[in-house]
Design goal:
alpha/beta; 4-stranded mixed sheet; 38% helix
């Protein structure tokens, strides 16, 4: 027998009992996440395991959706634009400045090579990090003063699966993938974390507070944000 779970973030999860299974085993494929469980496993236990592994499962799903980075690959975000062009030299060159990056590729570049794909992503991600360190802290400071919601510190990280987080000590962490979002969604994420400095959970009071600073559009902005992902 199969049990199907449809999750807003993870998509379809197919739960299958396997007589040979001794524990829960998750396998991510292009169409769904397949979970093999020992016979008699309660669905409540499966859902608990999903929540514990949510961030890892999300990342594995996103990796399967990653497009090939080649001469047709583009990023055209509000705060970051990327293009790849063919050069004359037999080596890669990266030209980067705030808000813009161009990668010059050798004429014979084999973009299907996994090692090259990993290198290209690493170079692009480092540029995203540098941009984020310039853009995000100053915007957070502005919104903090505007909303009257102070925080202790801010750090930029490479988080995949979470745009941001806020600790009980009011330390805010922001993913550098935020610079791929339009400005109104960046502000939504920053305000979301600032509201956590006052309300640490997602209670009714939290959403009332966030609505106050988003003109009543908190839920609509949250739904719009789900159309974006924290990876390239």
């Amino acid at each position: 027998m199969e049990t199907i779970i449809e999750d807003d973030e993870l998509g379809v999860l197919v739960i299958r009992a396997n007589p040979r299974a001794r524990s829960l085993v998750f396998r991510t494929k292009s169409d769904a996440i397949y979970v093999s469980v020992p016979p008699g496993t309660a669905i409540k236990e499966v859902k608990h395991a999903i929540e514990n592994l949510r961030s890892k499962l999300w990342v594995s799903r996103q990796k399967l959706k990653r497009p090939l980075i080649d001469l047709n690959y583009r990023i055209d975000a509000e705060y970051f634009k990327l293009s790849l062009i063919t050069g004359e030299k037999e080596q890669f060159m990266a030209n980067s400045k705030l808000g813009f990056m161009q990668i010059v590729c050798p004429p014979q570049a084999v973009f299907a090579d996994e090692g090259l794909q990993n290198w290209l992503r690493k170079v692009i991600e480092e540029s995203l990090r540098k941009n984020a360190k310039v853009i995000l802290p100053s915007r957070l400071e502005h919104l903090s003063k505007q909303s009257g919601l102070p925080y202790k510190s801010v750090k930029i990280n490479s988080s995949q699966g979470r745009w941001g987080s806020c600790s009980a000590r009011k330390d805010i962490n922001l993913s550098y993938y935020l610079v791929l979002l339009p400005s109104h969604l960046i502000d939504y994420v920053l305000l979301h974390e600032l509201c956590h400095t006052r309300e640490m959970n997602h209670s009714e009071r939290f959403w009332e507070l966030l609505n106050r600073f988003t003109n009543g559009n908190a839920m609509a902005l949250r739904n719009e944000l789900r159309g974006y992902r924290t990876c390239i």
